[in-house]
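sanity check this record:
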Amino acid sequence: MKITSVEVVLEDRPGFSPAFVWRKNLPGSDGPSTGAWLVIETDAGITGFASAPRGVIFKDYVDRRFRAELLGQDPLMREYLWERAWELDRIERFAPNMAHVVDVALWDIGAKHANLPVYKLLGGFRESLPAYASTVTYSSIEEFLDIADQALALGYPAIKLHAFGDAKKDALLGERLRAHVGDDVPLMYDGSAGFDLMDAVYLGNALYDSGFAWYEEPMREFSITAYKWLGERVRIPLLLGEVTDGAHMSAGDFAAIGVATSLRTSTFLRGGFTGAMRIAHLADAYHLRAEVHGMGLESAHLCMAIKNTTYYESLVWGNPIKREALVDAQGNVHGPKGPGVGYESIWAESGIPQGLEKFVK
């Protein structure tokens, strides 16, 4: 099988509605934007799809680098093509949330060729997994408590906070939320890299006292030494490696210094399915967890394929909140039906994105 065509279809995307914010000093949700679909066709009649943000930038990458690299290649040689993307990154420094797109489309082709959903081609481990409600930042502690009540009523068994970005206020929120939901509801906290070491230590110790299950990315992840110092000063488990460059290589550094209890993995920021599975297997070698970052079909496939992950992340926003379509009334996400990633099953209900009609069989 050979790749015969590599196309990018730009798509106007409406953004989140209603809009939301993250912590203080960090931009919130995107408004209307231009995204893209990558379409890779083969001489076997199998077409691979993947979604990209920042469509104009991604199209430039494809036009200048990826198309010439991919045409004529065997799409089943995913490891080789993943390494080629890393070679190109040496020149381009691809945005981390776009370099994964080619790998996702190649796995879509491979799984369709095998007539399997991607998670089974990856080596399926389970068929379902609990989802946690991952909040945006709300206006007050009282609103957070209301959102927690809604999440539990919708069936979510656990809750993760993206809070205010103020160490003392977030510590108080954690204390109030624990008292509100009781001791049996798992709670997690994501700092979105909002703190320096002093505030990260203060907040980490407060969250530990409130029984939080993990403490995620409280500081920017460029300084692994700073995280080593953090790990020496807090008892709460640290979940690390979400946005640092280097995929499995930088994840390996967090494991090597002994600071991470869990490593973050995803297709979106960690090099597609190939990079995500490298991180998961690396973590497993040290009895660490590999928690999947983000929502959607790609994350659902990873959750079904990775042994050492415990939850699917389901973003909730607005007030009232809604349960994500992939999550059932009992708060579980299930293995997507194949073959491939499963975009076509979504399009069968919502409609084929404009411009892709001629590519969808």
